[in-house]
Amino acid sequence: MRTLIVSSLVTADGIHGDPQLWAGEYSDEEAVEQWLGALKKSDAFLMGKNTYELFVQMWGTPEGPYLERLHEMPKYVYSSTLTSADWANTTIVSGDAVAAVRELKEQGDGDLMVYGYGRLSQALLEAGLVDRLDFTVNPVVFGSGTPLFRPGKRVNLRLDSVSRRGNGAVALSYVPA
User: Fold this and answer.
1) pTM beyond 0.70, yes or no
2) How many structural domains compose the chain?
């Protein structure tokens, strides 16, 4: 069975929305190397409509190994409103995202990667499908924006690993307890 990993950037004050406004200075070579390593282990990339639209706008053209990997890998967009996808190797999945991801997890043994912690990630975590949560806490207080967690079902976690980057960001990995 595949391992489902949710990876999200977050500020020190718990904001994850609009990372293009605050994460750039912390997305250094060390960070990109770490992200590329995770993508190389992943069989597919999963996202909701909002993440898809942001990524196509920001990363529509592959430049460098990280974006080349992201472009070449299979991508699944879970949306009830999106009707077409212009990004290479992208499949739109409508309907019950939780059931579709459950089925996708059973189809192999590699990693499935989700970036961000939006409605899709929260639904997958609450359904017990997430095997690991990776949060990179960036050393900035942004002051406003979309908080990482919204009201929902309680899920107990266990800290699996901690690492510190030279730029002050801290990577935290949690697994369901």
Assistant:
1) yes
2) 1
Which residues of the chain carry a pLDDT beneath 50?
none
Among 66, 174, 30, 97, which residue's Cα sits nearest to residue 55? 66
- CATH number of residue 162's parent domain: 3.40.430.10
pLDDT by residue (tens digit) across 147-177?
777 777 888 999 999 999 888 999 999 999 9
Q: Which residues pair with 171 in a beta bridge?
A: 136, 163
Domain region containing 167: 3-176
Between CA 13 and CA 176 the distance in angstroms is 23
Where does residue 13 rank: exposed (0-12), middle (13-18), buried (19+ CB within 10 A)?
middle
Read off the amino acid at residue 58.
M
Closest Cα to residue 90, out of 150, 48, 58? 48
